[in-house]
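Milestone M4 deliverable, item 7.
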Amino acid sequence: MASNADLTDYDKIITAVFNRKCKSIKKRDAIDFTKDELVETAKSLNIPLRNPPDVVYTFRTRRALPNAILRTGNWILTPKGKGKFSFQKTQRPPFIEIQEGLAHIEIPNALPEIVEKYTANDEQGLLSTIRYNGLIDVFTGVTCFHLQSHIRTTIKGEGQIEVDDLYVGVDEEGKQYILPTEAKSPDERDKLGWFQVANLVKFARQRFPNLKCRPIAAKPMRRNIVCLMEFEDDTNYERISIKNIKLYKLVREEQ
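Output delivered:
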């Protein structure tokens, strides 16, 4: 169990908001709060807070909620309108755990050496590695074309989201697909959430209603070892599941 000294400022703020709201409401499967309450809580804790919505964004897309909250059940944070948010209780843990013991598939590394030398070991570097190596094509078995990166948009019921990368694809029978992709850094704390994947499907259905959605997630396990996952075409984060998972090791031929 983390001591108070181990908690970040964001941990302390979100925990204090949760505890205070729990005392004042009877319904415990949905707990609403506002940006103003984040600001007031930070002030009461003597914590400077320059960007209140970043507290919510961090626990929605990057890190698990503090143990003090998770001890009461599985929770995610959801938007409820401008400056409004909610703790929502879920049946399943909010983040996806990548299974251990996956055998890797060796792929010749087509990333130009000068790019590999200078690229960052983060999600942006991962997206470059995937694109240069055609990993989306290899993984899905369809011919894919990169369409756009870093799409910031709004989807009904969820507010603003960001899609890291977007591909379109066509298979040997001429069927066309949209492949929204979520990328994570190698940092163990950089979590992939079920609700993020479900939001990729919501985005695809809203923006590309005539294309079959094949949501993809990518996470580097180590340098030049990439895990790719494909999920079902489902907008329900309680129900959506992994359809395919592969571990690729990018190797260079010895000169």
